Amino acid sequence: MSKKVLCAINPHSGKGRSQSMLAEMQAALPDFQWVVVESSTPQYFSTHLGGFIDSSISAIAVFGGDGTMHDVVNGLYQSNHLTTPILLFPAGTGNAFNHDLECLASSTAIERLKKFELQKIDLLKLSTPEQTMVSFNIIGWGLVAQITALAERLRIFGGARYTIASILKIFSNPTAFATLTYSGNKESAEFSFVLLMNTKHTGKGMMMAPYASLSDGLMDVLIVKKTSLLNLLFLFPSIYSGKHVHSKLLEYKQLSSITIAATDGNPLTIDGEVKGRAPLSVSILPLALSIIK
């Protein structure tokens, strides 16, 4: 039976690769039916996606990066359509989620859409005083969020922007005071950053949480307290291989919930998007999202 697929496209993501990937998919799967929707404003899909979904839609194909995926997943969450299967084509500059799924070519994504094998994954539910949303990838506060914010201003450098932003921000070595509450514990200190991971990867293939699983009912939490510039310079290069988890500078925890109370005023990074501010509470929504694996 022919499947009807809603194609959610960010035309600006990844230097415009979305349109060419869409054409490649349509040519490879001539028996499928397509409903193509392009975003016209930021957060377009989180606001409008529910209006395009009905019982005839078999799946959603997302053409963009992790930020586009975040927008679409929140559109599904807000409209109570998380059971509609979703597949992300690697049309962004970072593609952290696709690194986890080993789906880094459009041909791989097309083959998976053709096979149509499904998997349930966890989501992170994030609440701040202003809003509630979900995250499929990462939530970062502190230095890591400031790196993402800077990387957004360096898009001219493509995927290299994450590395450039990391180097520039590490040398400024910003810290902020916060109180973390988790598993009955409360910890107050000056922190460099706190990173909550649902996936193994962030940025462009950085293996930040090598023990993470998409379906274990836990988030992998990385905590780094205030430390010297020299220590940070030694820590960050090991992130690409995952060896940083053995550093004495870093606490690595697997938790079902955590609260970060901070008033530093800096934005969060959520699935590669710069949005929201602390304080925040995060909990797991186990096996909440259906994906095509």
Question: In words, what does this structure look like?
Answer:
- The protein has 293 residues and is α+β, with helices and mostly antiparallel strands.
- It has two domains: 4-116, Rossmann fold; 127-286, Tumour Suppressor Smad4, CATH 2.60.200.
- The chain is built from eight helices and 17 strands.
- Strands 5, 6, 7, 8, 9, 12, 13, 14, 15, 16 and 17 form an eleven-stranded antiparallel β-sheet that branches. A four-stranded parallel β-sheet has the order 2-1-3-4, with helices on both faces.
- A hairpin with a 2-residue loop joins strand 8 and strand 9.
- The longest helix is centred in the first third of the chain and has 13 residues, at 66-78.
- It is globular and about 60 Å long.
- The relative contact order is 0.17.
Comma- or semicolon-separated keywords:
293 residues, alpha+beta, Rossmann fold, Tumour Suppressor Smad4, 2 domains, 11-stranded antiparallel sheet, 4-stranded parallel sheet, 8 helices, 26% helix, 37% strand
Record the SSE blueprint.
Layout (H helix, E strand, L loop, with lengths): L3 E6 L7 H12 L4 E6 L5 H5 L10 E6 L1 H13 L7 E5 L5 H6 L4 H10 L2 E10 L4 E4 L2 E5 H10 L8 H12 L3 E7 L2 E13 L3 E2 L3 E2 L11 E7 L3 H7 L14 E6 L1 E6 L4 E4 L2 E5 L2 E13 L1
Summarize the structure.
The protein is α+β, with helices and mostly antiparallel strands and 293 residues long.
CATH class categorisation of the largest domain: Mainly Beta
Counted up, domains total 2
Alpha-carbon Rg, integer? 19 Å
| Count of β-strands | 17
Proportion of beta-strand residues: 35-45%
Tell me roughly what share of residues is in helical segments. 25-40%
Helical/strand content category: alpha+beta
